[in-house]
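Practice problem 4.
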């Protein structure tokens, strides 16, 4: 397929503005197909640093025929408008979704990808432009997909869950791990990787604990956090974990509250090798309307906890580590897809949902509920 064969219009999910899912999102049939040569002309207010990053990122863009899109927490955050200056679209309406799988129809300046390659991609600056028949992706964070081993829906889910692979490098052999948010999009993949990396005991927290005990997650134990306060578990106060990995938000404040209440901890202190690792902030929904606000959330507070847990509370609390972001290259994508190709990592898909107004809205509502069973995926078209 060449550019001359591309239609001028396509079906796409559109968010017409910030706000409620059902009010703002619809699937439309006559949306302009993206063009790598169109000008960057934002009509919304975005921070100059973000505008500069978008311009640089556009130089690496390719056009794909989209097969499937996986949603990430950032998709709901963008729609809320709470971080619009830094994550908001340059113009409204916008096409949501950034983690995806598709067929390259225009490789742009890439020399690694060719027309016809099936690729998995994750978003870079912000999650958007993918949930349409044709989408824009950055070639720097794509990798080729072997569709004889991985379906497009699975590839999209794996692209979106690739942070699990990055965090798995923290796992130490023979350690006991508690995973918060174990049944979600990233957690359900990390459960598999923790065992592969040599953890001797893996426990997950979820509303549906039975699912965590079954393949492919195969945890040793699972706690229904709606029925039991895991921070007051007698079993784990007596046999504390070496590491807590938090994909659910709020674990550290709870550890601090229990420490202040003089309750026995469920994780070892730093002096005994105990660790708390997270890729989240304290709450799933936060406002970021200025650089100072975001620096407080992603830099100052984590830095204070990082230093304090290593210098002042080593005998009572684990070390704190917040692992923010992924490298701006395809290394993690390569590792993730290689593990899937080898059968070591199974994609856990919630869906796929249909590429209809109701289907896309339902997918967003599932993501917003924070009770997804794996990665929420929308199927856009057939391979």
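Answer key:
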């Amino acid at each position: 397929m060449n550019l001359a064969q591309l239609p001028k219009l396509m079906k796409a999910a559109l968010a017409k503005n910030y706000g409620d899912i059902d009010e703002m999102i619809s699937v439309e049939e006559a949306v302009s197909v993206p063009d790598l040569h169109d000008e960057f002309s934002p009509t919304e207010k975005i921070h100059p640093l973000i505008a500069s990053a978008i311009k640089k990122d556009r130089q690496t863009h390719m056009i794909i025929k989209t097969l499937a899109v996986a949603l990430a927490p950032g998709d709901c955050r963008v729609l809320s408008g709470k971080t619009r200056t830094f994550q908001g679209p340059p113009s409204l309406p916008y096409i949501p979704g950034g983690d995806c799988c598709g067929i390259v129809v225009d490789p742009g300046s890439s020399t690694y990808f060719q027309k016809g390659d099936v690729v998995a991609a994750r978003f870079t600056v912000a999650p958007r432009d993918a949930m349409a028949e044709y989408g824009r992706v950055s070639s720097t964070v794509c990798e080729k997909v072997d569709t004889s081993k991985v379906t497009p829906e699975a590839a999209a889910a794996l692209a979106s869950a690739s942070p699990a692979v990055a965090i798995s490098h923290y796992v130490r052999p023979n350690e006991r791990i508690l995973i918060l948010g174990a049944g979600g999009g990233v957690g359900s993949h990390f459960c598999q990787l923790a065992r592969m990396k040599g953890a001797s005991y893996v426990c997950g927290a979820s509303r549906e604990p039975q699912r965590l005990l079954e393949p492919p997650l195969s945890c040793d134990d699972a706690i229904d956090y709606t029925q039991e306060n895991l921070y007051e578990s007698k079993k784990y106060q007596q046999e504390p974990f070496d590491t807590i990995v938090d994909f659910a938000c709020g674990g550290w404040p709870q550890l601090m509250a229990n420490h202040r209440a003089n309750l026995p901890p469920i994780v070892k202190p730093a002096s005994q090798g105990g660790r708390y690792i997270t890729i989240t902030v304290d709450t799933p929904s936060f406002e970021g309307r200025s650089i100072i606000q975001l620096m407080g959330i992603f830099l100052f507070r984590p830095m204070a906890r990082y230093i304090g847990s290593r210098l002042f509370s080593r005998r009572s609390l684990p070390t704190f580590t917040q692992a923010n972001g992924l490298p701006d290259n395809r290394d993690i994508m390569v590792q993730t897809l290689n593990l899937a190709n080898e059968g070591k990592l199974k994609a856990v898909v919630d869906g796929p949902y249909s590429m209809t107004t109701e289907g896309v809205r339902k997918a967003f509502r599932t993501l917003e509920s924070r009770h997804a069973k794996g990665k929420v995926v929308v199927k856009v078209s057939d391979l």
